[in-house]
Specification:
The chain is an alpha+beta fold. It is built from 12 helices and 8 strands. A hairpin with a 2-residue loop joins β3 and β4. The chain is globular.
């Protein structure tokens, strides 16, 4: 499976539900309409709307008009995790979009997102001998910054009333602040005044992932940031992340990122 694709519904004759569970889907409405439900809430995507369909969100009763057309940017979960440039806004967006996946784009916002989609189409459709993943990854970072700017006002105004969502947001904020030192679910549960099992159940209910996965995601993000600074030695990074040894750091990185620190460092040096 490719880590990224850009699809035109009318041209490629495929609907977004064909990719659910394989990709995070970013859909820009061009014509017609798409209707769907999340629980008891009904949503509509029309021309000028942006839909973000997360892999962990199930849509039901999906209906498309005969003239429905849209462009879709498909991003795999590992690729998104690797090139996610900022964790705090990603966290807030993840929880908000779970229940509010459709945004109507104003003129300036629509121009911005359409420009990003055209850039993806050009780059993905043009064979590149060198650094294709890094180039698309850099474009994804820009797109995510643009996306967060589009829905930042709505997130700021939103009141998250669901107590489980509030617990989950508090959990992720704690992880963002403490993952360099604390990597046990029990520690976070204790800080939140919750049972570890209940915290993991909340995480699975909201995101489809256990709480331990989120701790690993944040820790890996911090690890990659530190490794990207080639002035830091592996000993420095081991100390900053409070691993007991470099061997422990290497095993953790290999398991969560798929590369050893040395392999990742070589990649960073080759790109720059």
């Amino acid at each position: 499976m490719r880590d990224y694709q850009i699809i035109s519904i009318r041209k490629d004759r495929v609907m977004p539900d064909a990719f659910h569970g394989e990709y995070h889907i970013h859909l820009l409405g061009k014509a017609g309409r798409m209707d769907f439900s999340i629980g008891s809430k009904r949503f509509t995507v029309k021309e000028g709307d942006l839909l973000v369909w997360q892999m962990s969100t199930d849509f039901t009763d999906i209906r498309y008009s005969d003239d429905f057309d849209a462009e879709m940017l498909l991003i795999s979960s590992p690729f998104l995790a690797t090139y996610n440039p900022e964790q705090v806004w990603a966290t807030r967006g993840y929880v908000y979009i779970k229940s509010n996946p459709v945004f109507h784009l104003e003129n300036g916002e629509r121009t911005l997102i359409e420009t990003d989609f055209r850039a993806f189409r050009l780059r993905i459709g043009t064979p590149m001998k060198l650094f294709s993943e890094e180039i698309i990854g850099s474009m994804l970072e820009i797109f995510l910054y643009d996306l967060w700017n589009v829905y930042s006002d709505e997130i700021e105004r939103a009141q998250i009333d669901d107590i489980t969502s509030r617990h989950f947001l508090r959990f992720l904020m704690l992880v963002q602040q403490n993952c360099t030192e604390q990597r046990e679910v029990a520690w976070y549960a204790r800080e939140l005044g919750l049972a570890p099992k209940y915290l993991s159940e909340i995480s699975k209910d909201i995101t489809g992932r256990p709480a331990s996965d989120w701790i690993e995601t944040y820790t890996a993000h911090e690890l990659i940031k530190l490794l990207s600074d080639t002035r830091l030695t592996l000993t420095d990074i081991t100390d900053r992340l409070h691993f007991s040894s470099q061997a422990m750091l290497t095993r953790y990185m290999k398991r969560t990122v798929g590369k050893t620190p040395t392999e990742y460092r070589k990649q960073v040096v080759s790109v720059h």
